User: Which sequence fits this backbone?
C-alpha cells in the first residue's frame, strides 16, 4: 500500500512542479498514474496480463462512469488511493489511449472481411437475375384490384357489364347480384380481379379463399393456380394455399370466380401474413399495376451470423454450401419452363437461331450474376462448354445456371479484389437494394457514366426512390426497434380480457403504417418518428385504448378509412405520448404478463436508441413476482430487485430510462395511478460527457433522445451496419462521428444518410480482405 501511495504522490508532485506543459497536464497526469499504478495488472495499453487481469480493458462506458469505477475499485485492494481528480485524469487518458471503440480502432484497425451473400441477398439476387430479362414494376397510385364483372359465368367481352377498382375482396351477395340492373340474373355471373400484391416482409404467406361457388386463385404464377376449385366437389367453402414472398416486390394476382345456379353467392380473399392473423387482404397491399412473375427461391438456408449485432455473411458451413446447391437446382428447374419467353425465342426460329439465343441468354445471365463482364476463358467455362454436341438446349441452360450460381464469383462479394466502376455500382446496389446491380447500373459502369461523384450519387437516389429502396429502410427500422423479437405478446386474460391475437395484429399494423409513412417522406421523418403525436387506429384499437377527440369517443373510424384499410391517423393522447417511444405496440411488447417492465423498456432505449453496450448480467435473476410484495408498485419492485451491486452498475442507466415510461401499463394503456398511488414517470440519463439529463414522461424523454448526439451516432452506426454489413470502424475511427454530423446537418433525413453511406462505401478504395 505504501509503495502505491508513494508512486501516485510522486506523479502528482512531478506534475505540480511543471515537468509537463499546461496543455498536456491532465493527459500526462492520467497516463503517468496509470503506468505507475495500473499497468502492472492491466497492461501498458489495457491489453491485460496473464497473472492478474487477462481480460483487455475496452468498452463504451462514459468517462464519468469510468472514473467512478476507478475511484471505487482501483488499484486492487487500495481503492482509496486513486479518487477524485486523479481517477478522472486516468479515465480521460484511458478513453483516448485504448478504452473507447475509436481508440481500439486506432490501435487495432478492423478490416473488411470477405463475405458471401447473405440469405436475403441470395434470394434477391436470383429474383433480380430473372427480372432483368423481363421488366420492373412499381406500384401505381390505385390501391385494390381491377375488377371486371360479367353477366354470364364466362369471361366474354360481350358480357362485361362493370369495370371498377375493388379496394378489397370480401363480398356476400346472398341471393342477389352485385348490380340488379346490370346483372339481373342471380343464377349465373362471374368476376375477374387482376393486379398485383405488395409485401414489405419476407416470409410465408397463407392465402385463403372463402366461397361456396367456383374459384381459381393465381399468386405469382400465371400458369398454375395456387387454389383451384373451378369444378367444386363436396361442401367445403374455405380453401388455402401458401407462397414464400420477398419484401419490396410486386407479385401478379388473378382471382377468377363464378356462380352457376347456387342458391347464394359470396367471395372473400383473405390471408395470414407473417406475424399476422387471418384477415381480408387490405387495400394497402393491393395495386391495379400489372407485374411480372418473380422467381422466388424457397430452399431453406441456415441462418446468417448475427454475433456482431447485425447480419453478416462471413460464416461458411457445409449446410450453407448444400443449401446453395439445392437453391441452384431449384432455380434451374423453375427457369426452364419460361426459357422461350426469357430468351426472346420466337416460334419461327430454327434450331440454330434458338440455340444462339439461349447461349446469349446464358452469357448475359453470367455477366449479371458476376456483376462484371466475362473474359474469354470465363465465357468458355461457364457457358459455351455446356452447349456441346449431343446436349439438349434445356440441359445446356440448366448446366450453365448451376455452374454460375455455384461459382464463387456469384456467391461471394468482391472475390477478386478488383476496384473499378463495376465494384462501385455493386457496392451501391447491395447497400440500397440488398441485391446485385440492375442492368441499367451495369451499363452505367460499362459506359463510365458513374465516374463523376454526382452521377454516382444520382444513381444512389434513383435506387432509393423505388419501392425496393423504401422497403430497405423499412426493414432497418424494424431491426432498429427490435420489432422482429416481439413475436408473441400475450397477457393475463383475467386482467386484460380483451387483449387477444387480433388486437396484437392490429397494434403491429398500426406501428407498421407509421413506419411506412415515415419511409415515404423525407423532411422531418426522423423527428416525427420519435416525437409525433398521431397514431394509426382502427375501430378495434380505438375502443380498447379509449381514444377520444375533443373529449368525445372516436367511433366509426372505418368509415373515414383510406387506402390503409380500416386504419386512419388520429391524435392520440398528445400530452403523454411521443412517436415510437410510447407506441402501444412497443409498450405492450416490452412488458411482462401482468405488469409493465421498466427494464425491457430501458434496455430498448439504452441499447437500441442510444447505442449503449450492455453486458449480460453475471447471474440470472428472476423478476420479483408482484404477488410476493403486493404493496410495491412496479417502480419500487424493480428498484429493489436491481439494487444489489452486481446489478446496479447497468441498471442505474436502464431503470432511469424505463421509469420515464411508467405511465403506460402492460398493454400500453395510459394510467395515472398504480397500487392506488400516483405513477412516478420521472427519469434521467447520465450522458457521456458527465451531464445529467432529466425528463418527465414520454414527451420530454423523446425530446431528449431526438437532440442527443448519442442517438445520432447510434442511429448512424446501426444503419451503416445494416446496409454495408461490415464493421464501421474499418472505414476509419472518425466515420461514426462524421456520419452523425452529416445526419444532423441534413435535418435528420434518413434517406440522405442512406445515400451518403452508400456513396462513401462505394467509392472506398479496395483493401486486402481477411479470408
Assistant:
Amino acid at each position: 500500500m505504501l509503495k502505491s501511495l508513494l508512486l501516485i504522490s510522486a506523479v502528482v508532485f512531478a506534475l505540480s512542479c511543471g515537468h509537463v506543459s499546461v496543455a498536456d497536464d491532465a493527459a500526462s497526469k492520467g497516463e503517468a498514474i496509470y503506468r505507475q499504478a495500473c499497468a502492472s495488472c492491466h497492461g501498458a495499453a489495457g491489453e491485460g496480463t496473464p497473472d492478474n487481469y487477462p481480460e483487455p480493458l475496452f468498452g463504451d462506458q462514459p468517462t464519468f462512469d469510468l472514473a467512478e469505477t476507478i475511484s471505487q475499485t482501483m488499484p486492487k485492494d487500495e481503492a482509496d488511493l486513486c479518487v477524485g481528480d486523479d481517477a478522472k485524469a486516468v479515465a480521460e487518458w484511458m478513453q483516448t489511449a485504448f478504452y473507447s471503440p475509436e481508440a481500439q480502432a486506432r490501435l487495432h484497425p478492423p478490416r473488411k472481411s470477405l463475405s458471401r451473400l447473405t440469405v436475403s441477398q441470395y434470394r434477391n439476387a436470383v429474383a433480380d437475375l430473372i427480372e432483368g430479362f423481363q421488366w420492373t414494376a412499381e406500384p401505381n397510385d390505385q390501391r385494390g384490384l381491377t375488377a371486371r364483372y360479367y353477366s354470364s359465368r364466362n369471361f366474354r367481352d360481350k358480357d362485361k357489364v362493370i369495370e371498377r377498382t375493388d379496394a378489397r375482396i370480401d363480398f356476400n351477395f346472398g341471393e342477389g347480384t352485385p348490380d340488379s340492373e346490370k346483372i339481373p340474373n342471380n343464377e349465373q355471373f362471374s368476376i375477374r380481379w387482376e393486379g398485383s400484391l405488395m409485401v414489405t416482409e419476407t416470409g410465408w404467406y397463407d392465402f385463403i379463399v372463402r366461397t361456396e361457388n367456383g374459384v381459381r386463385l393465381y399468386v405469382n404464377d400465371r400458369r398454375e393456380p395456387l387454389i383451384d376449385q373451378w369444378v367444386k366437389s363436396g361442401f367445403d367453402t374455405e380453401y388455402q394455399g401458401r407462397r414464400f414472398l420477398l419484401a419490396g416486390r410486386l407479385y401478379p394476382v388473378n382471382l377468377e370466380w363464378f356462380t352457376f345456379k347456387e342458391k347464394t353467392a359470396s367471395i372473400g380473399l383473405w390471408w395470414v401474413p407473417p406475424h399476422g392473423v387471418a384477415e381480408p387482404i387490405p387495400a394497402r397491399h393491393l395495386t391495379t399495376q400489372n407485374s411480372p412473375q418473380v422467381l422466388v427461391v424457397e430452399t431453406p438456408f441456415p441462418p446468417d451470423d448475427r454475433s456482431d449485432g447485425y447480419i453478416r455473411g462471413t460464416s461458411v458451413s457445409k449446410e450453407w454450401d448444400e443449401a446453395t446447391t439445392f437453391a441452384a437446382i431449384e432455380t434451374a428447374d423453375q427457369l426452364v419452363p419460361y426459357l422461350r419467353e426469357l430468351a426472346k425465342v420466337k416460334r419461327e426460329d430454327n434450331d440454330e437461331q434458338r440455340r444462339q439465343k439461349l447461349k446469349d441468354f446464358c452469357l448475359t445471365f453470367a455477366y449479371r450474376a458476376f456483376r462484371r463482364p466475362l473474359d474469354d476463358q470465363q465465357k468458355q467455362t461457364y457457358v459455351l462448354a455446356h452447349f456441346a454436341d449431343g446436349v439438349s438446349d434445356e440441359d445446356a441452360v440448366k448446366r450453365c445456371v448451376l455452374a454460375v450460381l455455384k461459382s464463387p464469383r456469384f456467391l461471394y462479394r468482391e472475390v477478386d479484389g478488383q476496384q473499378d466502376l463495376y465494384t462501385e455500382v455493386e457496392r451501391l446496389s447491395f447497400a440500397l437494394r440488398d441485391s446485385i446491380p440492375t442492368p441499367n447500373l451495369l451499363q452505367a459502369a460499362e459506359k463510365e457514366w458513374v465516374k463523376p461523384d454526382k452521377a454516382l450519387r444520382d444513381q444512389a437516389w434513383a435506387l432509393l426512390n423505388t419501392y425496393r429502396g423504401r422497403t430497405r429502410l423499412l426493414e432497418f427500422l424494424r431491426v432498429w426497434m427490435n420489432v422482429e423479437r416481439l413475436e408473441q405478446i400475450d397477457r393475463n386474460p383475467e386482467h386484460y380480457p380483451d387483449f387477444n391475437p387480433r388486437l396484437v395484429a392490429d397494434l403491429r399494423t398500426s406501428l407498421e403504417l407509421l413506419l411506412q409513412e415515415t419511409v415515404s417522406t423525407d423532411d422531418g421523418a426522423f423527428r416525427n418518428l420519435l416525437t409525433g403525436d398521431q397514431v394509426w387506429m382502427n375501430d378495434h384499437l380505438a375502443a380498447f385504448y379509449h381514444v377520444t377527440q375533443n373529449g368525445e369517443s372516436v367511433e366509426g373510424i372505418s368509415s373515414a378509412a383510406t387506402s390503409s384499410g380500416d386504419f386512419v391517423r388520429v391524435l392520440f393522447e398528445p400530452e403523454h405520448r411521443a412517436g415510437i417511444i410510447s407506441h402501444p405496440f412497443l409498450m405492450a411488447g416490452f412488458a411482462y404478463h401482468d405488469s409493465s417492465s421498466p427494464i425491457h423498456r430501458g434496455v430498448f432505449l439504452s441499447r437500441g436508441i442510444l447505442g449503449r453496450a450492455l453486458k449480460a448480467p453475471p447471474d440470472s435473476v428472476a423478476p420479483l413476482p408482484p404477488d410476493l410484495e403486493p404493496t410495491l408498485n412496479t417502480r419500487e419492485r424493480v428498484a429493489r430487485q436491481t439494487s444489489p451491486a452486481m446489478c446496479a452498475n447497468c441498471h442505474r442507466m436502464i431503470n432511469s430510462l424505463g421509469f420515464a415510461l411508467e405511465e403506460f401499463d402492460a398493454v400500453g394503456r395510459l394510467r395515472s395511478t398504480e397500487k392506488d398511488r400516483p405513477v412516478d414517470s420521472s427519469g434521467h440519463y447520465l450522458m457521456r460527457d458527465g451531464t445529467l439529463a432529466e425528463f418527465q414522461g414520454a414527451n420530454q424523454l423523446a425530446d431528449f433522445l431526438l437532440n442527443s448526439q448519442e442517438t445520432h451516432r447510434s442511429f448512424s452506426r446501426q444503419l451503416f451496419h445494416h446496409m454495408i454489413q461490415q464493421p464501421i470502424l474499418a472505414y476509419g475511427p472518425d466515420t461514426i462521428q462524421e456520419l452523425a454530423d452529416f445526419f444532423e446537418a441534413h435535418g435528420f433525413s434518413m434517406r440522405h444518410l442512406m445515400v451518403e453511406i452508400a456513396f462513401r462505401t462505394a467509392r472506398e478504395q479496395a483493401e486486402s480482405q481477411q479470408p
User: Anything to note?
Assistant: The chain has 28 helices and 20 strands. The first helix runs from residue 2 to 16. Confidence is low (pLDDT under 50) at residues 1-23, 560-564, 766-771.
